[in-house]
Amino acid sequence: MRKLLIAANWKMYKTPAESAAFLTNFFPLVKDNTTAEIVLCPAMPCLPAVVEAARDESVSVGAQNMHWLSEGAYTGETSPTMLTAIGATHVLIGHSERRQYFNETDTTVNLKLKSALVHSLIPIVCVGEHLNERERNLTADVLNLQVSVALEGIDPASLGPLVIAYEPVWAIGTGRTATPEIAEGAHKIIRARIASIAGSDVANATRILYGGSVKPDNAGKLCCLGDIDGALVGGASLDPASFAQIIANATSR
């Protein structure tokens, strides 16, 4: 049984003080949660404070990005060793906004995934198609390529921590949400590709999240489906009551 995972991607929002205010209100709302793994991914300047605040809570903390090298002359980057040193346990890799605005490629996603696994960070690898690709019936081609390159050269035995997030680019921040049927179909494609590369045991154990305008009113319908193992939540995770309600609705499946 794959444990539900609900992750918050705060993107470039919240100062450390605003993060602290969020946590003060959020932790009491999820204190009775035992069903889902909860992960908060704040901006880099807020990571140490959020890690410290969550130390005695049933909430994990992840980064929104990282470099694949442990150190080097890469101004503005953050290494996996820096993340583990401050207590981060998860990392988002290949979010569509990183691909769109910062030249993230399938190849760099592969390098980052390998590095995350080596450094015992739980990787949440993001994949998804653009609207024009969906309209041209290329969704399966896009997802198969992204997953194949991401997993290239990785020993299947090391993929236990792997999490995939399916985020149709056309549904991110647009208010448009893939129907549960569309999302489930994409998740089946992803799981089948993992099986073809790493075997059915790895595929069946890998959690695949849905991301794309997830809100309290659709979280339950999405997360009740067999191949959807949780959600990667953007804008609706910025409000503690909204994010807590998403978790409650998702875990009511």
Query: What is the SS-derived class?
Result: alpha/beta
Which descriptor suits the 3D outline? globular
Q: Could you give the order of strands across the largest sheet?
A: 1-2-3-4-5-6-7-8
Main beta sheet, described?
8 strands, parallel, barrel
Helix content range: 40-55%
Low-confidence stretches: none
- CATH class reads Alpha Beta
Quaternary class: single chain
How do the SSEs run, as a string of H and E? EHEHEHEHHEHHEHHEHEH
How many helices in DSSP terms?
11
TL;DR?
The chain has helices spanning 16-29, 47-53, 80-86, 96-101, 106-118, 131-135, 139-150, 180-198, 200-205, 216-223, 240-250, and strands at 4-9, 36-41, 60-63, 90-93, 122-127, 163-166, 207-211, 230-233. With 253 residues, it is of the alpha/beta class.
Give the arrangement of secondary structure elements.
Elements: E1 4-9, H1 16-29, E2 36-41, H2 47-53, E3 60-63, H3 80-86, E4 90-93, H4 96-101, H5 106-118, E5 122-127, H6 131-135, H7 139-150, E6 163-166, H8 180-198, H9 200-205, E7 207-211, H10 216-223, E8 230-233, H11 240-250
Parallel strand pairs: 1-2, 1-8, 2-3, 3-4, 4-5, 5-6, 6-7, 7-8
Helix pairs in contact: 1-2, 1-11, 5-7, 7-8, 10-11
